[in-house]
Amino acid sequence: MSGIRLGVVGYGGRISGMIQGVFREIAADLQVTAIVDPDEAGVRARLDAAAAGRGWARDGGGVADDVVFHRDVDAMIKDGHLDALAVGTRCNFHTPIAVRAAQHSLPLFLEKPVAVDMKQAKALETAFEGSSCKAVVSFPLRVSPLCELARQYIEEGAVGDPVHVAATNYVPYGTVYWEAAYRDYDVTHGLFLQKATHDFDYLMYLMGQPIVRVAATATRGHIYGGDKPAGLRCSACDEVGECLESPQNRRHNSSGGSTADHLCLFSVDCGEGHRLNEDASSALLEFADGSHGMYTQVFFARRDAGTRGANVSGYLGSVSFDWYTDELKRVRHHAPFSAVEKASGVASHFGGDLELARDFVALVENGAAPRTPIETGIQSVYACLAAKQSAEKGRFVDVRLVGQV
Q1: How far is CA 137 from the centre of its chain?
Q2: Taking every pair of C-alpha atoms in the chain, what is the biggest distance, in angstroms?
Q3: Which pLDDT belongs to residue 53?
């Protein structure tokens, strides 16, 4: 098969980057032929700029002239003569679009989180029961080479039966969750759903078990959020000299984040109470076989403090890895041997995005079963919703399982 005709709902930065990058790295002749997006002018400009960068610009017109914009996903599927569909809308629209896609048989690439509340998650599960639509959920961590290697060692008995896992995610770019659209709670519904959905998925993959019970806690308002005026930007603030988040201080301190004029991280726009993104949050996780683990995500880390990975242990040994150092360590508990393996190369999402592209193209061209099907996205959402509820209620919460009546 050649010339994959792709329809896109919500042509945002993430899906645009996937298409212009790893999708076309795997299928060079893939073409976006139909789009649903309210910002048609902005999308056309982005398409033409990307095409010009690849040397595809034509005399007398832009490449985006070949793309047809549709009013909604149903019209696009009906009239677009598509081979596949990709969804890159804001998070709260993932479920409504995917529910419509489930009524058709087009292969689907669906961004995470696949749902933002229990009503959406149940509706999504119902929609895909018996559906001929197969989806690749955007979970690059699970399919990254480092995670795959860790899973291989665990399957080969490197730890014996996995009994415990400790996972951390110290995010060195966490300011984005207070100075960009991610701070809009109505869109993201908090950072368990926005960030931990990746991690809960790969932890269930490594342990070979679903998460069945969660106890979680969250710390909010100690660092970000506050009472600065709504709509405040650095360019209009009289505290830029001393504020560590001002563009000039970020440049001076090499502390990361946008060095352009940006929204204030300490304004009322960031939200309040449970509608304010957490500075840090943690969860105690119980798996179906009684094994357990813990996960912590921290959003105020900077520079070399960034780390993301896990340590899986059993009676026979431990397997640990960190995506930021690209290293995996295996320790034999009952023999005087340890080993460190170093991954090579630099790729988006630690190489996982390229693997997602391979799965998506294989699904489109050959009907190959994806490694991150819709069930993984839904199960991760159920675990994240339990963590979110636990942090709000201060108690253990059972996790709904896919297929549960």
Answers
A1: 9
A2: 71
A3: 67
Euclidean distance between CA atoms 316 and 160, whole angstroms: 5
Confidence of residue 297 (pLDDT cuts 50, 70, 90): very high
In sequence order, the 6+-apart residues with CB closer than 8 A to the CB of 121 are 95, 114, 115, 378, 381, 382, 385, 400
Instruction: Report the Cα–Cα distance between both ends of the chain, in Å, rounded.
Output: 40
List pLDDT tens digits, range 169-187. Answer: 999 999 999 999 999 999 9
Residue 362's φ and ψ, nearest 5 degrees, are -65, -35
Q: What is the pLDDT of residues 25-36, one digit of tens each?
A: 999 999 999 999
Contacts of 278 (CB under 8 A, 6+ apart): 190, 191, 218, 219, 220, 299, 391
For residue 359 the two structure tokens come to 């799965």
Return all residues near 119 (Cβ < 8 A) that are at least 6 apart: none
298, 170 Cβ separation under 8 angstroms: yes
Task: Please name each of the domains of the chain with its CATH number.
Answer: 5-138+354-370 (3.40.50.720), 142-219+274-345+380-398 (3.30.360.10), 234-270 (no CATH)
Q: What is the pLDDT of residues 93-128, one digit of tens each?
A: 999 999 999 999 999 999 999 999 999 999 999 999
For 356-376, how does the pLDDT look when each residue is reduced to its tens digit (9 = 90+)?
999 999 999 999 999 999 999
- Do 400 and 387 meet the contact criterion of CB atoms below 8 Å apart? no
Residue type for 9, please?
V
Reading the block at residue 169, the tokens are 């995610």
* Cα angle, residue 380 at apex, residues 136 and 147 outer, rounded to 5°: 70
